[in-house]
Amino acid sequence: MDIIVLNRNAAEKDIRHILKKLEGKGLKATISRGTERVVVGVIGDTSKITEEEENAFRVMRGVEEVMRILKPYKLASRDFKDKGTIIKVKGKIIGGKKIPVIAGPCAVESWAMLISIAEKIKAAGASFIRGGAYKPRTSPYAFQGLGEEGLQYLAAASKKTGLPVVTEIMDPRDLETILKYTDVIQIGARNMQNFRLLLEVGKCKKPVLLKRGLSATIKEWLMAAEYVMSKGNHDVILCERGIRTFETATRNTLDLSAVPVLKQKTHLPVIVDPSHGVGKWDLVAPMAKAAVAAGADGLIIEVHTNPAEAMSDGEQSLKPDAFKKLMAELKPVAKAVGREI
Ligand code: PEP
Ligand code: MN
Fold it and tell me: The domain containing residue 141 runs over which residues?
């Protein structure tokens, strides 16, 4: 038993009674109130509930249906919540008709560079600013990010432009610091299955942008989202950023089929990162357009004023002019699929 469906007129005391019964069995619950029905999602090891116990729930007042979800993820599944999740961040909406674009440098390098990029992406129509202050670099000798100083620059750029901040966390020990400055917490591809980190951000009130792991299946990715959600934070944004395949012409293989697949399986918003997906700046625009055509709820794109000198991912970063051009070209694509940019 994973879901208890109550009719919409179910009394609060009936719901409370069910929650108490679940609690008595060591289980927790989350409630989703729709216009037609109230859905109680049961959290915890539901396999220990016997058939008789399940039947007892079935006849409780207000209960319409008791169901098992066969998928290993529950809270993330469309069975639990049919309506697409809409996430609101400081007046910006992810999961609505309008497709927000998150843009900015791979890493925050300096205040001068960040504010110059921030102003240009804002003018081009971006909705959020991105930038890493703690960078997951392959080499321990490569630039690791500015740490808290970088976060301060992001928060200051956000204040000046009104663009909310998206930045990556790598270590739960940095969580308290990062929360002071960011609006959305990014979990990078390399940490998609860092379960302790997932559980920690799951206790936060800020949305989590969860990137797909380099070799993660869609199911594993949804299970990672489930980890976050199981701790109470249901504001998870899934981000396809390319997976490892035998192909070497691009940095990764951007799996755009993940977008419609996820749309069937989950109510969570799905965004696409064509920059890490292809690894080459001149391939970013076509894949960004393809992502919007495929139904993406947002894009995250790396932009740098001087890609040749960038401390990370310069080769895949768009210059502000190219970004502006792309933003204009995305408009008719969005319109063609009933969306807006
Ligand atoms: C990034 O967004 O700069 C990044 C490191 O992405 P990913 O985790 O997808 O490699
Ligand atoms: Mn990057």
Answer: 87-336
The reported pLDDT for the residue numbered 32 is 85
Ligand 1 environment, Cβ below 6 A: 106, 132, 136, 188-190, 211, 241, 273, 276
* Amino acid (1-letter code) at residue 327: M
Cα of 199 vs centre of ligand 2, distance in Å, is 24
DSSP state of 125: T
Same domain, 37 and 153: no
Q: Position of tokens 């502000």?
A: 320
pLDDT at 78: 92
| Residue 79: inside a domain | no
pLDDT at 285: 98
Q: Cβ distance 323 to 103 under 8 Å?
A: yes
What ligand 1 atom has the least distance to the C-alpha of 212?
A: 9
pLDDT beneath 70, residues of the chain = none
Surrounding residues of ion ligand 2, Cβ less than 5 A: 106, 313
pLDDT reported for residue 70 = 78
Structure tokens at 221: 């990715």
Question: How far is the C-alpha of 141 from the C-alpha of 121, rounded, in Å?
Answer: 30
In a shared domain, residues 50 and 104: no
76 lies in some domain: no
Q: How far apart are CA 39 and CA 65, in angstroms?
A: 10
Q: What is the pLDDT of residue 241?
A: 98
Measured from the CA of 273, which atom of ligand 1 is nearest?
9
Question: Six-digit token pair at 335?
Answer: 């319109």
Instruction: Quickly count helices (H) and strands (E) in the chain.
Output: 11, 14
CA distance 14 to 9: 10
The CA–CA distances, whole Å, from 183 to 109, 166, 194 equal 20, 6, 21
3-state secondary structure of 231: coil
Domains in the chain, number = 2
Residue type, 72: P
| Alpha helices (runs of H) in the chain, residue ranges in sequence order | 12-24, 51-58, 111-124, 148-161, 175-181, 195-202, 218-230, 258-265, 274-278, 281-294, 320-336
Q: What is the percent of the chain with per-residue pLDDT over 90, rounded to a whole number? A: 87
